[in-house]
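Table S2 (text version). Query chain:
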Amino acid sequence: MKRQGLYIGIYILITLVAIGLIYMYRNYNPMHYSWFPKCPLKSATGLECAGCGSQRALHFLLNGELKQAFHQNALLLPFIPYLTLGYFIQFNKEPSTTVIRWRKILYGSVAIKVIAILLFAYTIYRNWPH
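Corresponding structure-token output:
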């Protein structure tokens, strides 16, 4: 019973943080405010990692500017539903066999390797001279 209260508290905390972040990224463009976190890789080397531009992309996405969001970070758009699904699967207390099978397919060791390769390839592509 105590554990269930803890889970409810965690859900409430995550929800409140998500609402706060959505408000912040909806109303403040990270390109215009210096208090947003900067990418350590880009700050140190000038190279863009696979996550660079995600804050700007999220701002544009929350304001309905899909083309601009995609231009800032093309991986953010497909990763939002992927990560959201993973969040809900993770907190499913009694998953069915179908959910367990999909969790293994989408979040198992093979999927992790595929995503790592995708992120690495995207990082190389972003920094390749065009």
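Notes on Table S2: The chain has seven helices and no strands. Helices lie at 2-27, 40-45, 54-62, 66-72, 76-90, 97-107, 109-127.
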